[in-house]
Amino acid sequence: MDNLWTKINDEIPTYMTELCQKHNLKCVKVSELKTAMVGRDFSILIAVDRFDIELYYLYKKGDKMIKHPCGSYFAQAYDSKDREHLLKGEGADIFVRNCILITEHGLASKWKDVLDGDKNWLDKYKSSSRYATEKLTSDEIDVLTDIFI
Q1: Cα–Cα distance between 99 and 136 in angstroms, integer?
Q2: What are the residue ranges in the chain where pLDDT is below 50?
């Protein structure tokens, strides 16, 4: 399946290069529409959708992997500076690429501690209205289960 959305997923490592270098993360393709930025003991998964992206935070707790959809939680901290230097144009592909850029800018400016592996933010997240957990998909289990032990 080679289409616009898989192409955007293939571009994620390029968008995240500086972030990954600065925080010692590695981009790993999880599936045709998912790429993870993997740290020592956590991962931030970016899932591309036709009209948006979603972020998930994954980490191990004992021998179990936990997955939290955290895109809207992170986004509530983003500001107008995080929305600067976006791509010009119209269309769903431009919108999704701009979502990736805003996420990159916002993670870099507001969530450095998360990128450095700090898990203290999880306490505030767990008490927020945005808190949720999800089951891992088979592709996430196959690619990420043993990658950050």
Answers
A1: 23
A2: 149
